[in-house]
Amino acid sequence: MRPMKQTREMDTKPAREVLKVMVFQLAGHEHAVDARRVQEILVNFRISSVVEAPDFVDGVIKLRGRIVPVINLRKRLQLPEAQAAENSCVIVIHSERNPVGLLVDSASELLTIPVGSIDSPTEVVGGIRTHFIQGIAYLEDRFLVILDIDEILPPREKDLTGETDLVTENLPSGNKAGSLDHRKIIAFELDGELYGVDIEQVVEIMGMVPVMPLPNVPKYILGLINIRGTIVPMMDPRVLLKLDRKPWSLEARIIVLREKNLVVGVVVDRMWELLRLPADAFQPPPAERSRANAEYFKEVTPAGDRMLVVLDIRKILMDTANR
């Protein structure tokens, strides 16, 4: 990830002066949306076609009993069309009444950027009409086109599917998908297993950057990294969890985590998905022994056909700070 022109006080700036965005690729350019509107990201999905829908709606997907329309963002923004990319995904966002999916080429990063680095567009940018653009974020040798979700979405759900109300199937105990308490979890892989952290603890997700090694530190501390002038320790959670340590691949990412005033970067084998899971599905970790060090396990929960382990970030950060 290239260095970005931002202020030094990464973890002390007031929340009103920064904006957290989800970055994704579209037609060879970087775009972003306000992360507060993102419900989850789906990499495994099947789109079913619908009749009497606008040409920019590819169809619908079924998400926990709810029918979610999927907007092809290339078509909506009148960008050149292409076959579905290998890393294409659906970003599920909140709308006024029902969630809506945005089909993009790939999702890459979660960034926190200063509001002061965002300018208003004055003309068509990258072939996109100005009314679709919330702002342009200049980050040294790159810039992000931040899209206006409310402009992308038609004012009513029936404009997407031809129906006045989207279909919601009955769920156990009479609950509907929208009425359950849920948690957003950033999921990732370590040594082939699925782990996760609460999105509230994530500052950003970034590519690999140079690491300055430190002498006389535990093996799990890789060194220090410079994030826009802020020095952050970086660690290998595979060492803490006593997992196999294979060479990092091109899919490796750094997740910058924060717990109160403590900030640390952790390297993961690859990102999986942003998940929205029922709060009552989380359980204490089982008592039986795991091949990993369960000392840093906080909770477990099903995630599709896999079991996801939520890590105890507070304990990880406290142990790192004490070293």
Write the layout of secondary structure elements.
Elements: E1 18-26, E2 29-34, E3 38-42, E4 57-63, E5 66-72, H1 73-76, E6 89-93, E7 100-104, E8 106-114, E9 118-119, E10 133-139, E11 142-147, H2 149-152, H3 158-161, E12 182-190, E13 193-198, E14 202-206, E15 221-227, E16 230-235, H4 237-240, E17 253-259, E18 262-268, E19 270-278, E20 297-303, E21 306-311, H5 313-322
Parallel strand pairs: 2-11, 5-7, 13-21, 16-18
Antiparallel strand pairs: 1-2, 1-8, 3-6, 4-5, 6-7, 9-10, 10-11, 12-13, 12-19, 14-17, 15-16, 17-18, 20-21
What does this protein structure show overall?
The strands form 4 sheets. A 6-stranded mixed sheet has the order 8-1-2-11-10-9. A hairpin with a 2-residue loop joins strand 15 and strand 16 (230-235). It has 2 domains: 16-162, CheA-289, Domain 4 (OB fold (Dihydrolipoamide Acetyltransferase, E2P)); 182-322, OB fold (Dihydrolipoamide Acetyltransferase, E2P) (Beta Barrel). By secondary structure, it is mainly beta. The model is unreliable at 1-15 and 162-180 (pLDDT under 50). It has 5 helices and 21 strands. The protein has helices at residues 73-76, 149-152, 158-161, 237-240, 313-322, and strands at 18-26, 29-34, 38-42, 57-63, 66-72, 89-93, 100-104, 106-114, 118-119, 133-139, 142-147, 182-190, 193-198, 202-206, 221-227, 230-235, 253-259, 262-268, 270-278, 297-303, 306-311. The protein is globular.
